Amino acid sequence: MALYCPITGYEVFSHPEWLNHKVSDTFTSNFRIIGHSIIYSSPKGHADLIGTKKSLALNAQVASVVTGGIGPYVQIEDYAHLHGSSLSARRFITNTFNNSKRRLTIIFCNLSPPLSIAIKIGRRFNTSGKYLHVAKHYKDAIQQAVELSGQENLPQDTAPIDLSKYIADHYHSLVPVDVRSDDAWEIQTPEFSNNSVVIDQCILHSTTKGFLEPEHIPHIERMRDRCQSDIPDTSPIKYFVIDARKMKGVNRLARAKYMQSLKNWHQRFPIRMFILYGANTFIKTAAHLAKPLMPFKIRIVNDMAQAFQLIRKDRSKNLSKPYRMRLQPKSAVIAHDDIEKFIALFSRINWEQEGIQHSLNIGEDHPLYFLYQSIKLVKEELDDLFKERRIFENALQQSEDRFRTLAESSPSAFLIIRDDQFLYVNSTWEKIIGYNKKEALAMSPRKLFYPYAEETFLKNNITPATSPDLPLRHEVKIITKDAQAKWIGFIAKEIPYEEATAILLIAADITERKREEEARRESEERYRSLFENNHSVMLLIDPETGNIVDANSAAIAYYGWSHKQITHMQIADINTFTIAQVNREMEIAKQENRKNLYFKHRLANADIRDVEVYSGPIKMHGKQLLYSIIHDITERKIVETERNQLIRDLQVALKEIKTLRGILPFCSICKKIRDDKGYWEKVDVYIHKYSQADISHSLCPDCAQKHYPDLQFDEE
After folding, report:
1. Which among 134, 266, 485, 491 has most CB atoms closer than 10 A?
2. CA distance linking residue 709 with residue 701, whole number of Å
3. Residue 620, SS3?
4. Kind of pairing between the strands at 485-497 and 500-509
5. This model's pTM is above 0.90
6. What pLDDT is recorded for position 521?
7. Terminus-to-terminus CA distance in the chain, angstroms?
């Protein structure tokens, strides 16, 4: 909230503890700061010594704020509500004022006769050299204060609107005005602008400029809502004041939308009065025509002062006595000659020709002035309507011409239907059905379309009742002139055609596409049968994501997961190989020129099985997938491993047997054997090295008898 002085427009500042501060049983203080360097004091009651001392202490606190607490200032003492003062209080005030170095002067206003005499006496005993000023009312006092303080040359926070006419002349004291504004309220377009302020939380004053068009109305509505949201809910905006001095005009549709917008606002926040000032003749006439149509008062005045005067009267009048204010001199009595002239002029107006051929230049003081202007406004609006109609008809004709040019050169068929009748068909449609244009237009759409699609086409699908802005897509079968069946795909949309509603069809021959779809459907059905009924484990995999798209019954039984579970898995959840291992297996398969790959797959029971996978691409529903057939080769791998080990063992044994059966170089003296590398080894070492036999040492009977005759040896 920002308060302003209505005389100077300077901002008025105060603290809650400065207002209505009761300093004694009989005395109340009020202090405000005006602008940069003026203190306004308006005490109430009877000033006693105790109250005066406390009031002057509060005055010192206020002075510590004004001009940064160090600069000079001027003080206004408004004694409109001061009933008297004690002698001791007056002496204390005089001494305090004389001793103040920052206070340049004091200006008294609204003095009672006793206080006026006391001030005059006090001047004679003033030894401070400061002159005491006396003004009649606040208006004179603030003007003197501004001049004496030199404040008119200082930068000020001023009201965004001239408030000098807002306060009535009989308001003798300061009545701060609550004025609110915000940059967010501003409307600025190339054709139209609007600046608004809210006064006393109930008056919306708008300064408009330019020409009002329909697209500007939403901006105005948003501006009103923002203004209302920035003031308390208990203070709705009741008065609208429009400064139309720079307003050029209003579009006819914009005027209707603006009036409806005000009616909508009135339903939410009842309007007391709508006031227009500074408007040109056209806008004033439009406002006069709107008066009987609006649920609130509409007033047309000359300037802002009259507008605020109307609001003051409306806010303060006795509601039991309706107030009527005459802002214009009373109109003269309408003479019989004036009526005859008006009728003659009215009868000469050519309503089929643009403009009014006869002059309507009469002054505003003429008793029939606004009636003449109303006729002129109505005639101008009718001319605008006829002009708009001609423009629309020309545009419509141009649109139809463009449509026919487009339709005749289009490879698609264009048809317009209304009430089971063709209104238009292009040459492409003739080629599709085999009938010439005359024959096609004479046909019934109901009879043309294939019997089983007839009801669906004509009764249920054509009219886009639920979504009129969206075209509807259909496919139907028709019979051509040479008795061939063809599929037609088309979109249908309601359009205006020859001053009525019709149905536009844009169609194309899709017979070949339908055949391809049927062949693809049959192929997919065959695949589905082979896939589901096959005893081999089969998976469909998305190669981009690795997601398992589908699994047949054999796969469900083999892996142990349900169909729902496995189709929510990825192949990486089953294949235990890492990406590097998978890539290595693919590289080996490529080198060996084979199409099968070997992996290890995990089952639902956590078993790991060796599998052989055959994969290839397959296109399903327009997407490229990987078709995989999986064979369990775990047992085969075990058999192969055992067979390979046996072969290796046999090869080693065979090699050893051949070595012992060969010709061995044997020394006849030391009995050593030479190996294949040329080294001589003892017989026992050589046999142990090249066979699986272990050597044990003993003595034969002959050697024992020969070398150890004294020992007895067991023959065994």
Report:
1. 134
2. 10
3. strand
4. antiparallel
5. no
6. 80
7. 132
